Amino acid sequence: MKHALGMAVLGTLAGALAPAALASSHREAPFVTQSPKVDGTDFYMFRSYETGRAGFVTLIADYVPLQDAYGGPNYFAMDPNALYEIHIDNNGDAKEDLTFQFRFTNTNKDTKLTIGGKSMSIPLVVNGGAIAGANAPGANVRETYTINVVRGDRRTGTRAAVSNAAGATTFDKPLDNIGNKSIPDYAAYAAAHVYSVNIPGCATPARVFVGQRKDPFVVNLGETFDLVNIKAPAVEFAANAERAAKDDLAQKNVTSIEMEVASSCLTAANSTDPVIGGWTTASVRQARVLNPTPNSSTPSKEGGAWTQVSRLGAPLVNEVVIGLKDKDTFNASKPSGDTRFADYVTNPTLPALIEILYGNAGAKAPTNFPRNDLVAAFLTGVKGLNQPATVTASEMLRLNTSTPVVAMGAQNRLGVIGGDNAGFPNGRRPGDDVVDIALRVVMGKLCTLNLGCAPADAPAGALRFTDGAYLDDSFFNASFPYLKTPIAGSPQTAATTTAARSAP
Length: 504
Fold this sequence. Notes:
With 504 residues, the chain is an alpha+beta fold. Mean pLDDT is 86; it is low at 1-22 and 494-504. The relative contact order is 0.22. Strands 3, 4, 7, 8, 9, 13, 14 and 15 form an 8-stranded antiparallel β-sheet that branches. It is 14% helix and 24% strand. Strand 3 and strand 4 (98-108) form a beta hairpin. The chain has 10 helices and 15 strands. It has helices at 2-11, 186-191, 221-225, 317-320, 327-332, 342-346, 350-358, 372-380, 434-442, 494-502, and strands spanning 40-47, 56-68, 82-89, 98-108, 112-115, 118-121, 141-151, 158-161, 171-173, 195-197, 206-214, 252-262, 275-290, 300-312, 397-400. Residues 1-23 form the signal peptide. Pfam families: DUF4331.
C-alpha cells in the first residue's frame, strides 16, 4: 500500500511539475489567449459519487476562463465555428478510441419594440420576461448544441448522433446567470437543462449538461504569478496556512461541458482492463475571412480542415511544464507525439525557481537528474494504480474505473497522497486540490518514500507546500452536474431592487 501510495504521488506530475504559475489551464498559451471561447481551462474525469451512480464516469471539460458574472450584454456563448471534443483512449495506445463531439448554434430571436412607430431590435439577451425553462419566451437568444460520438479516429472514424429518448438530437444550453431578476431560480433553471441521452453503441442511457458554472478551480493567482509572492516559503509552517491566502477565482464563472457515461461504455470491449485515459480539445477551421460588412450571423467566413488549438488532459501541464516557446505546439499536438516534450519532465525548470525564491527557507529543489521519478506518471500512469495493461507513453488524465468510489464528505482533498486512491492523480474530482498536491510532489515527495530517488535527493521533500487557497469537496455538489451554480451578475431579487428604488 505504501508503495502504491507513493507511486501515485508521482502521478501528480502529470498534472503539474512546478508551482510557479498555478492557474490550471486558464490563458496558458499565447495563441489561445486570442480566442477565449476555445480555451480549455480544466478537465475532470472521475467515478460518479452521486448515490446510486457508482457505475458511471463523469467527464467535465471547462472552457472560457475568467468569466465575470456581470459580463453582458453578450455574456459567454460558445463558438459556433468551433469543434469541442472529449476523447477517451481505452487501450493505452495514445490514440482516441471514443470521441464526443459538441457543436453549438446561436440563434438571435431578434425581439423588437415599437418605438415612435418604428419596429426596433432590442440590445439585450432577455426581453423583459422572467426566465424559468429551456428556450423560454423571455430569452432573446437561444443557444443549442448537438453531440456526435465517433468510434476510432476522431476525423475518419464511425460517427453517430447522440439523442434523447424521443429521438431529438438538439439540446438547449441555458443562458448564463444574468441575475436574479431575469432568472429568479437559476439552480432550477439549469437543472431543466440536464438531459438523459442515448449514445449509439451503449445500452445504458447517459446524462449531459452544458452551461455556465462557478469556476471549480481554486488558486492564489495574483501572488503566484508575482514570483510566488506568498508567505515564504508557501509552506504550512503556521496553523491554517493552507487557508491563509485568497482564491482569485472565487468570483469567476466558467462554461462546462459535462457527460455522465456508464463505465462499461467507456472501457474497451472484450477487455478486462479497467483503465481509461481522457483529454479534451477544441479546434477551429484552418481559414477565417472577416466579413467587411458583418452582421450577427455572418461576422466571418470559416473554411478548411479542423485545426486543434487547445488541449488539456491532466491539469497544469501546459501551464507550468511546457516551455513558453512550445506552448502553442503542445496545444496543437496529439498524445501519440508526446515524447517530444519529455525533456520538460526529466529536466523541469520551475523547481529551480522555487529554490531561487525560497532556498534560504529550506525549499531546495531535488537533485536527481534526469527526473526519472516523474517520467512514469507523466507519460504512462502509475503501475498498480492507473496504468493501462499496455501503454504508449503519452500525456492524458488516467482513471482506473475499478477503484472504489469515495462519497462526498469522506474525500481527501490531497487525493492519493492523502490516502484516497479515488482521487487525483487517479482521475480528477472537483474537490482534489491539485495545486497543493503538485507543490509537494515537484519538490520531491516521492524521494522521501524511496520511489525512484532517495530522501537525500530531495531536501524539501517532506515540506507541506501550499498556495494558501483552500479546496475540498465541500466546494462542490453531491450530484450531477456536480459543479456549483454560477455567480449571478446581479444578486438582487426583483423585490429587493424595487424596494431599494422606492426608499427615500
